């Protein structure tokens, strides 16, 4: 089959169409690569934001921990102070009771000594009742 001018023209059209298709495909590939690159950059920026957020969260946790420890220490100190105050109150109450009992005992001794010294009939009756 002889090569004709018509075949040359058809091949030229075919090559032109293929070149056009290749150019469009290259444009699409380039656009896709640019879109992918933009997506990667956005993802990288989001990752950086996440890292910064994690650092900030860790700082806040440390601040909260320090604040709680400080409050716990203050609470412990206050509890120890209240315990000491309670111990002091108990000691004072015991001392007050001891003084009161000693005073009562002294009063009873004085009364008994007075009864014995006077020979009181009430004391004598009580003494006779206990002698029998």
TrEMBL record:
SUPFAM superfamilies: Apolipoprotein A-I. Keywords: Coiled coil. Residues 22-92 form a coiled coil. This is Uncharacterized protein. It comes from Araneus ventricosus (Orbweaver spider).
């Amino acid at each position: 089959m002889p090569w004709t001018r018509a075949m040359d023209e058809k091949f030229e059209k075919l090559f032109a169409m293929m070149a056009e298709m290749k150019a469009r495909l290259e444009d699409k590939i380039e656009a896709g690569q640019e879109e992918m690159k933009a997506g990667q950059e956005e993802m990288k920026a989001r990752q950086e934001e996440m890292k910064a957020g994690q650092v900030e969260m860790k700082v806040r946790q440390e601040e909260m921990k320090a604040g709680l420890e400080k409050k716990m220490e203050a609470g412990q100190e206050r509890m120890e102070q209240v315990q000491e105050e309670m111990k002091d109150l108990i000691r004072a109450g015991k001392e007050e009771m001891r003084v009161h009992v000693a005073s009562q005992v002294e009063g009873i001794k004085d009364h008994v000594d007075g009864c014995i010294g006077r020979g009181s009939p009430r004391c004598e009756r009580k003494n006779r009742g206990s002698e029998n």
